[in-house]
Specification:
Length: about 80
Amino acid sequence: MTSGDSETGDVTGTKDKDYNLIWFTEACLSNALRLETDIQDAERDGDNELADLFRRAQGESRKGAEQGKQMLASRIRG
């Protein structure tokens, strides 16, 4: 049996799929915050092309976080 074959919810108290959704949402939110620093660094160095790339990535991270939050909310409501 590989680790991918077993549910680890007995360890965390949360089903793997639910834990993964929570992790995904948190990762998207953290990434959006991190990218803000990266945007500021690129702008400070006058690299608008890089800043634009980071802004687009930040937008996608926000979108992922929003989708994760919506899915979490609907699942919590049952």
